[in-house]
Amino acid sequence: LNFSVKYYSSINHLQTTCPCSKIKAKKCHILNCSGCICTRRTAPPGSILPWRFFSCKEGTRISSKRKQSTSVVTSELLHKNLLKSEQENWNDISPIYKPMTKRIKEKLEELHNKYTLNSESPRMRFGENVYFEENGCIFLSKADDDEGNVDILFSTDDLGFPDAFIQRIRISPDQRYMAISLKSESSEEATCVIVKLGHFPVVKKVIPSVFSFEWATSDVLYYTTQKNLKCQNVFMITFTNQKHTKLVYTEQDARFFVDIYLTKDRRFLTINSNSKTTSEVWLVDCRNPFELPALVQARTKGVIYHIEHRNDELYILTTYGEPAEYKLMKAPVASSGKENWQLVHALEKKTKLVDFEMFSDDCIMFLKNAGHLYLNVISFVSHSVQSIKLPTWACEFELESHPEHTTSTCYFHLSSPVHPPKRFAYSFKENNLIEQAVQEVPIITNCHTTRLLAKSKDETLVPITVFHDLNSKELHRKPLLVHVYGAYGIDLNLSFKEEKLMLIEEGWILAYCHVRGGGELGLSWHKDGCQHNKLKGLHDLKACIMLLHELGFSQPKHTALAAASAGGVLAGALCNTDPELIRAVVLQAPFVDVLNTMMKTHLPLTIEEQEEWGNPLEDEKCMKYIKSYCPYQNIKPQCYPSVFITAYKNDQRVPLTGVLQFVQKLRKAALDHARRTSKKGNWIPNIILDVQANGSHCDSSWEHSVSE
Fold first, then answer.
1. Which residues of 515-531 are buried (b: 16+ CB within 10 A; e: fewer)?
2. For 188-232, how does the pLDDT look when each residue is reduced to its tens digit (9 = 90+)?
3. What confidence category does residue 628 fall into, taking pLDDT thresholds of 50, 70 and 90?
4. Which of 6, 239, 460, 553 could be a cystine partner for 32, CB 3.0 to 4.6 Å?
5. For residue 512, what is the enclosing H or E element?
6. Are 39 and 259 within 8 A, CB to CB?
């Protein structure tokens, strides 16, 4: 059995309750299970995970020890003074919003109870046994037991991890061992706990700082370690009579991040070393787990590939060949070099590969094209490809885990920001799509979904997804919330969120701008918006907002812009170039000082980030280009929109010092402008920073996210 428990952060939060009345429910952080390739659920194949973005160590490296000491003391003092000033400002301002906060919180909790608390925890069946997670506990039940009898295999509270949530679970093939990763909100690193199952489960090993892990056999576990936000070592640990731990693989290139994955048929364990643009895979034969890993294909600049296995053939999801979009290819295990790769299926232009699932006789590609979702079902028996369009309201897939690759049905969930997840099944035998009706989920019928295309500065058409109440009159008077990201080839998150539905019910219009730099239209869409093309994303965002206003969706004085993490680059840049288009901006853990971050190579992720932003240290042209759009570098006295920023004290991705300095500089520029001008109706924007003591770079529990 292989499955992962996916943690929903403040950007994607749900909650579950225990189905068994005799078990007391408590606060829960876990929501959903993903399949074996859990790392590919949150990022497109070949790209890093969204929560790995940004380097974060503060301070500057200075050769002189004396100067370094003075600099560090000065920097720490400045940081403390800025933080104290902002906390005092927040304490003065926040009481103004308490009545509104109380009303919104009550409404969100009502919607949360209505749409998510009744959803079941995913069940993972392994023969007669069914495993599931609830409220920080892992349970075992029998498949044919209708009375709700369960055994508790593991509890975070009992083990002394009351504040941790379960991030990933792996059960050994013979079900004698269970490996679990535990993570807290305030830490980037997870702890792996190995439990020996039986009548009295026993903890056999605790391994700190683990990122990914898989069982090669019933008593051999492979895992990667994480240090300073990097994963570069793979270890093997045995649970035989002679227990030992061995280093198996080390990645020498700082641009590459290593994780491991088990093929669906459990034949091979793959060691995957990926940069933003290039990858390399090594195979461990699970029948001989002590043999050295075998190289599939040496890394080739610009070629990304991932491996699956079926009937002594490797199935390769890769960007190799023209065009440089994903294709499914295959090659014999014995001769796996790219000269032997044969094309099985190629995607259409401007198509995004969202997910890929392998079965014994078929595979399914989950795809996006022009904002619509559909499936490509590829039969290895009949050599046919069937394309199935999914409901037009759907914006997001969530694939369920299928531990048995011989199953005849593929299960997944569809949702949108305003539509709760609905379960669907595709039957290979019946060759049809079935909507599952396991529990009653209220149907959202009064929300209209519109898909638009905005013409950017260079005539490129940029997709926009718009949601609004069908019964709304005079849309130009309604408030509009625009969302943007545009980096790393990552799509905007369009999964269900209670706060989005609440806004629709209160008359808001929601717009999602799929600008270049993101991944909505495939790999070329990302490439056309990174490095020396970053300004294209800014032009796309401006064109999207202007089109929305032209079509009667709100107006500038009722328009707000929301962005998180790397989305802060484009949102902050728009505030500098076209502040008149928006009235308010909401930023969560924003990346707002690209230039200074990319100039500090001693930071753990700066080198690998060069494939996204460029290398300003070695390329003066690149430095000037980054400086031309970097939000912090381009603040100037003018009439800015109001800005609300949430930052995290323990954020290891975006340094808090940089956010503090950005806020101080922005506030000073707005005040300078107000003093210099005396126009009628002139106003001073609110610029507010809320520094959260808990949470880490957009990761927070349901309770904390409600407060935010």
1. bbbbbbbbbbbbbbbbb
2. 789 999 999 988 899 999 999 999 999 999 999 999 999 888 899
3. very high
4. 6
5. strand 509-513
6. yes
Tell me if residue 651 is catalytic.
yes
Residue 395 CB burial class (10 angstroms; 0-12, 13-18, ≥19): buried
Within-domain flag for 150: yes
Q: Is there a single domain that holds both residue 481 and residue 363?
A: no
From 437, 465, 496, the end of a domain falls on 437
Tell me: do 403 and 385 sit in the same domain.
yes
Last residue of a domain, one of 375, 410, 437: 437
At 444, give phi and psi (nearest 5°). -90, 110
Instruction: Supply the range of the domain harboring residue 395.
Output: 349-437
Helix (H, G, I), strand (E, B) or coil at 311: coil
Number of C-alpha atoms within 13 angstroms, CB side, residue 447?
A: 27
425, 451: one domain: no
**Which of 23-32, 195-204, 218-227, 612-621 comes out lowest in average pLDDT?**
23-32
Token pair of 221 as six digits:
């576990």
What the block records as the tokens of 280 is 């390399």
| Helical residues (DSSP H) of 40-97, grouped into ranges | 65-93
For residue 665, what are its two tokens?
Answer: 């500089």
pLDDT tens-digit map of 410-449: 989 999 999 988 889 999 888 888 887 655 556 666 889 9
Instruction: Examine the domain organization and report whether 462 and 420 are in the same domain.
Output: no
pLDDT at 5: 29
Active site (annotated) includes residue 565? yes
Find the catalytic residue in 309, 402, 539, 697.
697
Is 396 in the same domain as 485?
A: no
Note if 619 is an active site residue. Answer: no
Whole-structure pTM value: 0.86
Which residues, in sequence order, are CB contacts of 565 under 8 Å at separation 6+? 50, 53, 54, 485, 588, 589, 590, 591, 653, 654, 697, 698
Which whole number is the average pLDDT over 599-612? 84
Backbone torsions φ then ψ of 96, nearest 5 degrees:
-60, -35
Q: How many domains does the chain fold into?
A: 3
Catalytic residue among 355, 469, 651, 690: 651
pLDDT band at 119 (very low <50, low <70, confident <90, very high): low
CA distance 518 to 523: 9
**Catalytic member of 34, 172, 181, 565:** 565
